[in-house]
Amino acid sequence: MNKTIGIGSKNKAKMKAVQKVFHENDYVLNSYSVDSGVSAQPFSDEETKKGAVLRAKVVIDEYGEKTGIGLEGGVQPMEDGLYLCNWGALVTIDGFVATAAGAKIKLPENIAADLYDGKELKSAMKDFTEQEGISQAEGAIGIFTAGKIDRTKMFSHIVEMLYGQWCYRYPHK
Ligand SMILES: O=P(O)(O)OP(=O)(O)OP(=O)(O)OC[C@H]1O[C@@H](n2cnc3c(O)ncnc32)[C@H](O)[C@@H]1O
Ligand SMILES: [Mg+2]
Predict the structure, then answer these.
(1) Residue 63's domain spans which residues?
(2) Which of 23, 52, 93, 115 is deepest in the core (most CB within 10 A)?
(3) With pLDDT > 70 as the criterion, what percentage of the chain qualifies?
């Protein structure tokens, strides 16, 4: 049987994370460029989670996949600063929705200030590091953890939690 899973993004770090978890389980990954339905730079856990769920739903509603995954990055203001946050969702055609969040770290104050000025984290990271394509590679989390946890590793953890919840709900998978 040809088992497929759809992801609502062409971002390489996100695709690799899903591939890693689902390939091991014999799934073929299809990726689709979709609109997250939230702002380009989500500014709360709620908005970031919503983006993940909406991306997963588009994969099912518009591309005919039976199972869709959405991964979304954002930031969450807290008492002591602005934290990087990440959410994932796995949605099935019969209406099951699993959600999970990833590791959080506080962003340096200069980066937080850029975001409060309306810059997307992607551009703030590019200006700060003078490197292109960080969001598709190690990510801000990779830069600020000296490469110990890169964006793929962080998203893989989320995808494992989605996959696990799916297996718990449908034990035959
Ligand atoms: O193509 P898509 O899937 O949209 O991938 P993206 O890199 O834009 O990722 P998100 O939309 O999920 O993230 C929202 C914003 O936050 C940025 N972002 C989130 N996490 C990041 C990270 O670890 N490193 C760099 N930018 C990050 C991202 O580049 C966007 O500007
Ligand atoms: Mg984006």
Answers:
(1) 3-106+149-169
(2) 52
(3) 98
